Amino acid sequence: MSPLHLTTKLPLLASRTARRHCLGLQTTSFSASSRAKSPRPDATALLSDLEHLFASPAKSPRADGAPGRSKLSRLPELPPQERHLVHDASNTGQLDGNPAKHLAVDIGGAQRLFDCIFLRDSCTCPQCVDPHSRQKLFQTSDIPPNLKGRYELTGDEETGLSVEVLWENDVPGYGPEHRTRHSIDWLCRALSTALELRNEAQTDVKVLWDKDTITKNNKWVEYEAWMAEDEVLYDALSHLNKYGLLFLKGVPESEESVVNIAGRIGLLKDTFYGRTWDVRSKPRAENIAYTPQFLGLHMDLLYTSNPPHLQLLHSLRARAPRGESFFSDSFHAAHKLRAKSEVHFRKLCTYPVPYHYHHPTHHYHHTRCTIETLRAMKHDEAIPPIHRVNWSPPFQAPFDKHIGGGYQPALRDYVAAAHAFEKLLSAKSNVYEYRLEEGECVIFDNRRVLHARRAFDATKGERWLKGAYVDDDVFFSRLRVLQERFEGRWTADGVAREVVK
Ligand SMILES: [Zn+2]
């Protein structure tokens, strides 16, 4: 099964530096061999661009409004749908040198328009962003709507070519000395990101898997290396992001080990089960997980508004016969279902399923559709990418909608769709089974990979897992920090952004 690589190739071109940024938006997919940090722009190339710019016959870069054009004019034309971004309005600055609400900046030989409000709002000078806290020191809402600016081109070896905007009017409290500087590289990247978001492009690194795929691609990481080496951690977290499943071995026999493992990602998620919790059988268990019974494929805590992203299970005792864990990629099953029956797929996208945890001291309740797509689905539209799957039969509450009042096929249609989906989830060819040994730990994406357990014989020995959760924000924060450090880019809202100054 090949990765889902959905992205746009952008036509934006600028200096050699910016070109690398703007064309480099291919995928966040990662392999150990391609891990080199993306190199800083070649300073010589930058300087040569700068020299060319300032040595061009038009002495002032603003005189013809198209700095460096001759050198860059061989770059490809913009596709028609992007041409409206090219300057042709008389109220635009820089072509005539007058202050304006929109400024045209030459990026790769094309005049790109930037709204002054955007340029002003993203100012990072020490007056606008506190250098220590990195917090913004003015409010977007205080930017005057009639804001006008003009810019001068400037440059240095560190950031390359930049525009320095002089404001005709400004946010109250800012004097005439206030200037906003943005590098061409940064503007180019901002424009690329805006275009990708507008085109709803998604950089999706997920590899959907069945039993064969995951058996071939499973990853095992040594506990010591996980704890000590950031590069190993990045490699492992990238794999986890791709497949939703990861195994650790050599984990010390301690109730604290799962805390240490999760701590490398960030804060643990505390729930009413505790900061960590034990999966071992006990009499009159308040949760089916605490019995030796078979436990079918499910996700945890769907009855809360933000279910945990990651679940960790560390095996401290595996001395009872059986009790194998098994896993299934719900995204894979959802894709299969969509290919098999769009009617079933749409039903799972729209039918509300309530989940609950209803006990004397805790009462959680949350309703979710089984499949969530990335964008709202219009009736006649192609189906957008899958965002989430919600599947947790043991924690389902009674249905609230479409339950009576004459002939309402909705509930019956839902059951038929759920039945088809369950068949795919639990198909032998889609399920990966593994019996966790002592000293091993599994980490999985609780919003994607379903987990289950075979029954075990609690009379013949002990079975004890120590569990913990990690939230999505915590996981993606660590992943971004490491991605920025090792790859020179980071991903948010499905768009990979190059690190530029
Ligand atoms: Zn500023």
Automatic annotation (TrEMBL):
Iron is among the record's keywords: yes
Cofactor: Fe(2+)
GO MF entries: dioxygenase activity; metal ion binding
GO cellular component: mitochondrion
Keyword list, A-Z: Dioxygenase, Iron, Metal-binding, Oxidoreductase
Record keyword Manganese present: no
Pfam (any one): TauD
Region annotated Disordered, chain positions: 56-80
Entry protein name: TauD/TfdA-like domain-containing protein
Source species of the chain: Massariosphaeria phaeospora
